[in-house]
Amino acid sequence: EFLLVLYKKEATSTPEQVVLLEYFTPQFITSNDGEPAILLRRYNSELVSSRVESVMLFSRDPRILRGWYDVMCKKCMPTRTKVFGIPLDDILARGDRGAFRGIPLVMHACISFIRRHEKGVKTKGLFRKSGFKALLEYFKDQFDGGQHVDFERYERSDAITVAALLKLYLNELPDSLIPSFLYDDLIACQAEEAIVIDTIRSRVPQRHLLVLRYLCSFLNVVASHSNENMMSTSALGIVFGPCLVRKDDLTPIQQLDDSQILSRVAEMLIRKCKLLLPKEQISISPVSSPRGNSKDLQLRLHGRGGGGGGGSGSSSGG
Predict the structure, then answer these.
(1) Nearest-angstrom CA–CA distance, 318 and 307
(2) What is the tens place of the pLDDT at every residue in 56-77?
(3) Secondary structure (DSSP) of 158-225
(4) Numbers of helices and strands, H then E, in the chain
(5) Would you state the torsion angle of the CA atoms of residues 135, 136, 142, 146, taken in this order, to the nearest 10 degrees?
(6) pLDDT band at 210 (very low <50, low <70, confident <90, very high)
(7) What does DSSP say about strands 282-286 and 103-104: parallel, antiparallel, or unpaired?
(8) What pTM did the predictor assign?
(9) What contacts 115, CB < 8 A, 6 or more positions away?
(10) Neighbours of 131 (CB within 10 A)
(11) How far apart are CA 138 and CA 271, in angstroms?
């Protein structure tokens, strides 16, 4: 057993509380005061009797805090199946347990549901509205617990909530889908289309590039219904710009200054999703999804390095 022992004061020998780490999920967050912190949230109240629902940990040294987080991720129970807050490469390395044809299961499940939903991509405010918070947290816990999530079983499940779950997954990736080491270069490009596309195609790992293309192809479909959902490529760019590529330690002023360029980059990737992978590196053929939906399409990588498998996507918009 791995215990987190909490003391009220440094000199106190009697612990205030003892937390059994294997029943808690760690999450690296920014507190309301703008300070980095670790939030330990009880994973499932039915598994253990405890009056502790959550614990917030702070440190004067962010490096120490990150070290704590790395250790806790190895000791907490959901780590074996946890998907939110886990690096993309770790998810893809799980094979069929973490991804479907190279696409993280949570992304595939969310996008497939939205496409099948009665209103789906035509839903007004898709990705802009926040959805039903309690259900959003429940779905997150289910995915992190390694459970199969069938959104259609839940009466209050709708495209807005599932879209919010997809956005939450992307925001909680430890490194953004476009790796953070490219942030400064993309900002310096000033959203110059040819430079941005070339930079991403040549420097983003191909496994990530396939996931990025899958997402942007879907968002292209969403934008094609902007007359109904009010989510044009420009509106989607504003929503997804900050989560497609991020950089830590930016001041609020820097984030504000960069936001317009990031929005334009995201808008460009949505419009030009076909250019993210050259035709000679992709073949598209019908496949069966986990639910047997023959309308799903398969993307396979060819050429330099392959990048590890393929992914499901849509020919609509790329």
Answers:
(1) 19
(2) 888 888 888 888 887 777 666 5
(3) -HHHHHHHHHHHHHTSSS-SS-GGGHHHHHHTTT-HHHHHHHHHHHS-HHHHHHHHHHHHHHHHHHTT
(4) 11, 10
(5) 160
(6) very high
(7) unpaired
(8) 0.67
(9) 121, 218, 221, 314
(10) 22
(11) 33
Candidates 122, 124, 92; CA nearest to 107 is 92
The maximal CA–CA distance of the chain, rounded, in angstroms, is 66
Q: DSSP characters for 61-101?
A: SHHHHHHHHHHHHHHSGGGGT--TTS-HHHHHHTGGGTEET
CA distances from 289 to 61, 192, 311 (A): 46, 37, 10
**Which pair of tokens denotes residue 246?**
């991020």
Token reading at 36? 């980095």
**How do residues 121-133 score in pLDDT, each as one tens digit?**
999 999 999 888 8
- DSSP letter at 199 equals H
Query: What's the first-to-final CA gap in the chain, in angstroms?
Result: 49
Q: How far is CA 274 from the centre of its chain?
A: 21
